[in-house]
Write a structure and sequence with these properties.
The complex is a heterodimer of chains A (230) and B (247). Chain A contains 4 helices and 16 strands. With 230 residues, chain A is an alpha+beta fold. Chain B has 247 residues and is α+β, with helices and mostly antiparallel strands. Chain B has one domain: GHMP Kinase, N-terminal domain (Ribosomal Protein S5, domain 2, 2-Layer Sandwich). Classes of the chains: A alpha+beta (230), B alpha+beta (247).
């Protein structure tokens, strides 16, 4: 038995369903009862009951693409702030294309404090801090563009179902948009005006993430803004 | 010694005109601070309290970090201007105790084990005190936690009951607390039916205690409804705005 309508706002402790159901994200099960554990939108899909959170921190997960900032340098690794409760480690061997020689190589020559990087999480669990890698094409130091920060909970909405939202954004604003799962987004476009449009759109998505028909409304807004700018 | 103040008049009404089982007017707002991860503001009668939550975040100092769960830290503090006579801003014995009991009232509601080696910091600032601040502080802190997106088993809601002039009353104000016979603050998780804080000062018979506890839980359930509405208000407002734009 369901106690709410699909996509209704629920608060922690709300009884969502009772019976033979599976507790999905942001819910917990006690006996046959499923309760919400976060403020969010409830979704009933088949036998699964889940809550799409409206706000959360970024908890790293292996395979995630993230954008981080170099905060400190050790003898053979960089400490990276990835907008998460856990500091990430980028080891020299996961960054350089040649073997790292401690006596000869100076890490600051490759990445210095304050640099932004696009990286992939290659290891993380409850006991160790996340480890990053930039040894893949497209990853590494970020040299141009603008950064927007959003709540990590809103990232799935910015990407959209089957990447519909992000593809629309790229098409309409003609910008290159790189989404970090940690809530940091890199935008680089042909002109500052295009970048401004993309940032405006992303901020609107974050604000209105819990409403429906968002993709169409955002597309309309961008077209309107483009018309006004000319 | 001056004559004892009459707390309940001949019509059975209290000093502020309330009936015995009536709460003070309550106003709750969520997400009032932009720098905190989650925040809430509550006005319960003349008590005004601000709560802010930071985290889960890195633990400082490092050695306090727990390997299997998050560290919950709580600070209850009264502003120097919150009471008639200026209060020293240094934490008093009472504030240290309240910080601890509020932390313990919130702890069972939070899934701390989901964020090992991190800390969740709760700050409760009493801007104006008129009794029932530990309860209102707990209520606001639970909202701030939910607003910060921290996974919880249930919201925590708190309310006091007590005895003044020989009558059991709900939600005591400062005068009733000081002049009355007993005060019984209760923190409650309504969906789980669990009590996470229970204190008493003064004296009650066992029967009176049972009745007072029931009265306090009734009060908690009323506040719980307002708590949930406040939490949803921000998002429902945006939703409505969007809908009205479409029409």
């Amino acid at each position: 038995m369901f106690y709410f309508e699909n996509r209704q706002i629920v608060t922690p402790g709300d009884l969502l369903a009772e019976g033979n159901y599976v507790a999905g994200n942001n819910t917990y099960k006690e006996g046959v009862k499923i309760y919400a554990s976060r403020l969010g939108l409830v979704e009933y899909e088949g036998r699964t009951v889940q809550v799409v959170a409206l706000n959360s921190v970024y908890i790293p997960s292996v395979g995630d693409q993230v954008i981080g900032k170099i905060e400190d340098i050790n003898i053979n690794a960089w400490i990276v702030n990835i907008n998460s409760p856990y500091k990430a480690l980028l080891r020299a061997n996961d960054a350089l294309n040649k073997p790292f020689r401690q006596q000869k190589d100076d890490l600051t020559r490759f990445l210095d404090v304050g640099d932004l990087i696009l990286a992939k999480v290659i290891a993380f669990d409850r006991t160790i801090d996340p480890i990053l890698s930039i040894r893949e094409p497209g990853f590494g130091k970020i040299t141009q563009g603008q950064i927007v920060k959003v709540s990590p909970a809103k990232i799935p909405r910015i990407i959209g179902r089957k990447a519909s939202m992000i593809n629309m954004l790229k098409r309409e604003t003609e910008c290159k948009i790189t989404v970090g799962q940690n809530g940091v987004i890199l935008i680089s476009g042909p002109s500052p005006e295009n970048e401004r449009l993309a940032i405006l759109a992303i901020e609107k998505i974050e604000q209105e993430a819990h409403t429906s028909g968002l993709t169409d409304r955002i597309a309309e807004m961008i077209r309107r803004e483009k018309g006004a700018g000319q | 010694m001056n004559e004892k103040i009459k707390l309940i008049d001949e019509n059975g009404l209290r000093v502020d005109g309330r009936r015995t089982n009536e709460l003070r007017p309550i106003k709750i707002e969520v997400d009032v601070l932009s720098n905190a991860d989650g925040s809430a503001y509550i006005e319960q009668g003349k008590s005004k309290i601000l709560a802010a939550v930071y985290g889960p975040r890195e633990v400082h100092p490092r050695h306090l970090a727990l390997p299997d769960r998050a560290l919950l830290r709580c600070r209850y503090h009264m502003a120097p201007f919150s009471v008639e006579e200026r209060k020293s801003p240094a934490p008093s014995r009472r504030e240290i105790e309240l910080s601890k009991v509020i932390r313990q009232a919130l702890e069972p509601a939070i899934f701390l084990e989901k964020f090992p080696r991190t800390s969740i910091d709760v700050f409760i600032e009493v801007l104006q005190a008129d009794g029932g601040t530990r309860c209102a502080g707990t209520t606001a802190a639970a909202l701030a936690l939910a607003d910060a997106g921290i996974p919880m088993r249930d919201l925590v809601v708190a309310c006091a009951a007590g005895k003044v002039d020989g009558v059991l009353v709900l939600d005591l104000n400062d005068l009733e607390d000081k002049e009355g016979e007993a005060d019984l603050p209760v923190a409650y998780m309504p969906n789980l039916g669990a009590i996470s804080l229970l204190q008493m000062d003064g004296s009650l018979t066992i029967d009176e205690f049972k009745q007072a506890l029931e009265l306090a839980i009734e009060g908690c359930k009323q506040i719980y409804k307002m708590q949930k509405e406040a939490l949803k208000a921000k998002y429902l407002a945006i939703k409505e705005e969007v809908n009205s734009c479409l029409q």
